[in-house]
Design goal:
Helix content is 27%, strand content 21%. It is of the alpha/beta class and 727 residues long. Helix 2 packs across helix 12 and helix 14 crosses helix 18. The protein binds beta-D-glucopyranose.
Length: 727
């Protein structure tokens, strides 16, 4: 049995040392390395004003100056998070037209976190870091970790979760993995940036407790546990000032409280000032200007002038330079021993297959149609445009020039060469162009539906691929509705009526209104924008070669108005501001506290086997605030096949003096159990992680008293509980 215990990363790293970890991330806190600091100071004190003045602004779309005299070549940046973005023109967003810039398409963030396997997150980081190095990048613009506040969020597919604990559990190992390859991870988009609507101007208002408990923990963990080298500040404002000139978020919290020593980099075009930005904590301004004019932008000549006339003190300027140099030294910039990376390797393709196949969620299997009994199946009708969609690029925002991408139809054909597989498109994409993005049409195409129904009724099994795609879910635009576009729900109803052996497979990065499909279909599977090997992975899950073990990293509401930001009518706000009225009750915290039944709860996902939970226990019955609770539970696989189960631990504070969510995820672990065997799952929870943020004292407080841990297979499938006392 292998078990990855989320809160003790040390254990994970013991297992992963063999995957080429150059520095031991657990032992070396780069941010406080005295030898390195001496070198940083020496270099910065040797720089002229002019040399320093070139370090802080993009002098191409994804470039900034190095320090030629000292042998530091230009600094190169590349977008993640789906893989290393194709090369763009130095001064334009158009592709540079290289023929050697294809890369591995990694499963998008939502898919990665649905695996609930944090070992995979580390390996994913190592592989993506290696691909970045193979393309000679210094900064990788990943991971993207914004909390999924609303199902409509256009970039939800890039982000990990609605839950801060799950979010941080993936961000930390992924950053360590990326940085193990001598490339700087850039966690984005800091912070409280949870919508695309008016993202460049919206002023976000949220209570202190809300930001501390929900929106900031992932960044804090990235800085304090993963030693992330770089943080990207987001487009929005927070409580007035833009984030990239927000003293509270950048100086006070990030660089002050958390002691961040790396670079704060603006999102592309998110800088709005010279003096305020420098004073309040921005170090590198990206995405402004163009050929011949970069030096005129905020952090070009105007910054040097501001230093010369005293508006920006020299100490601030020097500190910025120290940060830039510190990161360059940490990634071994231009050092002969620097890792050179590897791209499109069989190992990376195997990894994306592993992630994809562990992330697929079996939502419902009421008739036990899955896994497919191929011995009895002669013909399969594969229906739906999503069976042939490629997802590495499209819509607005970063994509990958994938070396290859297996679609679901190709995956099924690969795996079932001797079965008759026919394809009917079923629905077609149609959009009305609006600005950067297309607003999808909600009408179906009756002829395509008729063709699909005909094919389904003449086949043993129908598999209908529906969901979103890279146009429907896109950067720069939130969706306007949770409805499935292009008449997909009606298509499923018609096909399911024609053939009771209908399986619905969603390919999507976020929740949709699936009420009609839920009523029509007995079997529903959820896949994601799942990378180069997506099609092989989904085929293997349908065939039972892989026993599904993914679990939803978000709540699937029945309808939009049930979800917190919409129930409180606070998404996407008015013309100028959005106030997060639901406070800390984001995602399942809202559904559980307000007793609203979701379509599928957070953490839900079935298996082809059954797991029985028994004997939950803790190592002690009462703890002090500096202790760690060791919780164990026995998991028996009482089905016929090997499987993996994610055990989730939620906490409930009994008789709390403050408002609490009904339950909060505090830990989880994913274990493998052979058929007929039992294994013990162990989850460690530091008592200090039970704290709430107290707005009166502006500090974290662990309330003494009783806490009940709910141990479950999902947030609403609780299999046992145990109560402990905290002194
Ligand atoms: C996105 C970032 C991205 C940057 C550079 C921005 O529009 O918000 O996530 O890294 O562009 O492509």
């Amino acid at each position: 049995m292998k078990s990855n215990i989320v809160f003790t990363y040390g254990m994970i790293f013991v297992l992963l040392i063999s995957c080429s970890t150059p520095k031991e991330p657990e032992d070396t806190s780069w941010q406080f390395d005295p030898a390195l600091e001496t070198k940083v100071s020496e270099i910065v004190s040797s720089l002229s004003l002019e040399e320093k003045g070139k370090l802080f602004y993009g002098n191409g779309k994804f470039w900034s100056a190095g320090i030629e005299r000292l042998g530091f070549s230009e600094v190169q940046y590349a977008d993640g998070p789906l893989g290393i973005r194709e090369e763009l023109g130095r001064h334009s967003w158009s592709p540079a037209g290289w023929t050697t810039d294809s890369a591995t398409f990694f499963p998008a963030g939502g898919g990665l976190s649905a695996s609930w396997n944090t070992e995979l997150a580390y390996k994913y980081g190592v592989a993506m870091g290696a691909e970045a190095r193979a393309r000679n990048k210094d900064y990788l613009l990943a991971p993207a970790v914004n909390i999924q506040r609303s199902p409509l969020g256009g970039r939800n597919y890039e982000y990990f979760s609605e839950d801060p604990v799950l979010n941080a559990a993936f961000a930390v190992p992924m950053i360590k993995g990326i940085q193990s390859q001598d490339v700087a991870a850039t966690i984005k988009h800091y912070a409280i940036n949870n919508q695309e609507t008016r993202r460049g101007s919206i002023d976000v208002l949220a209570s202190e407790r809300t930001i501390r408990e929900i929106y900031l923990p992932v960044y804090k963990a990235a800085v304090m546990e993963a030693d992330v080298y770089s943080v990207m500040c987001s487009y929005n404002r927070f409580r007035g000032p833009y984030v990239c000139e927000n003293e509270f978020l950048l100086r006070d919290i990030l660089k002050g409280e958390w002691g961040f020593k790396g670079t704060v980099m603006s999102d592309w075009g998110a800088t709005h000032s010279t003096v305020e930005s420098a004073l309040y904590g921005l170090d590198i301004s990206m995405g402004d200007g163009g050929e011949g004019t970069y030096h005129e932008t905020y952090f070009g000549d105007p910054l040097v002038e501001a230093v010369q006339n005293g508006d920006v003190p020299m100490e601030v300027f020097d500190e910025m330079a120290e940060r830039v140099v510190r990161v360059l030294l940490n990634v071994n910039k231009d050092d002969p021993t620097r890792k050179t990376g590897a791209i499109n390797t069989p190992e990376h393709h195997k990894l994306v297959y592993d992630v994809a196949s562990e992330s697929i969620v079996l939502l419902k299997n009421d008739q036990d149609i899955l896994p497919l009994n191929t011995g009895q199946i002669k013909s399969i009708a594969v229906i739906g445009d999503n069976a042939t969609q490629t997802l590495a690029s499209g819509g607005f925002g970063a994509g990958v020039k994938a070396l290859y991408e297996i679609t679901p139809l190709e995956g099924l054909k690969n795996r079932l060469p001797n079965t008759e597989i026919n394809f009917a498109q079923g629905y077609e994409e149609e959009y009305e162009r609006r600005g950067f993005v297309g607003i999808p049409d909600y009408e179906g195409n009756p002829e395509l539906v008729a063709e699909a129904v005909e094919m389904a009724s003449n086949s043993d099994v129908a598999i209908v691929f529906v969901g979103g795609n890279r146009q429907v879910e896109s950067e720069a635009a939130d969706r306007t509705t949770m409805e499935l576009p292009f008449g997909q729900s009606e298509l499923v109803s018609a096909v399911a009526e024609a053939n009771p052996n209908t399986i619905v497979v969603f390919v999507a990065g976020t929740a949709f209104d699936i009420r009609e499909i839920e009523g029509a279909a007995s079997t529903i599977v959820w896949s994601w924008f799942n990378g180069s090997e997506a099609g092989n992975a989904i085929a293997d899950v349908l065939l039972g070669t892989v026993n599904p073990s993914g679990k939803l990293p978000f709540t699937m509401p029945k309808k939009l108005d049930d979800s917190p930001a919409h129930a409180t009518n606070s998404f996407p706000g008015n013309e100028t501001e959005v106030s997060y009225e639901e406070g800390i009750l984001v995602g399942y915290r809202w559904f559980d506290t307000k007793d609203v039944e979701p379509m599928y709860p957070f953490g839900h996902g079935l298996s082809y086997t059954n797991f029985e939970y028994s004997s939950p226990s803790t190592n002690k019955s009462s703890y002090s605030s500096s202790e760690t609770i060791e919780l164990t539970v026995s998991i028996e696989n009482n089905g016929d096949v090997y499987g993996k189960e994610t055990i989730q631990v939620y906490v409930q504070k009994n008789n709390s003096e403050v408002m609490r969510a009904e339950k909060d995820l505090k830990g989880f672990t994913k274990i493998e159990v052979s058929a007929g065997e039992s294994e013990t799952a162990t989850i460690s929870i530091d008592v200090e992680n039970l704290a709430y943020f107290d707005e009166d004292s502006m500090s974290w407080v662990v309330e003494p008293g009783e806490y009940t841990f709910l141990i479950g297979s999902s947030s609403r499938d609780i299999r046992g509980s145990i109560t402990v006392a905290i002194e």
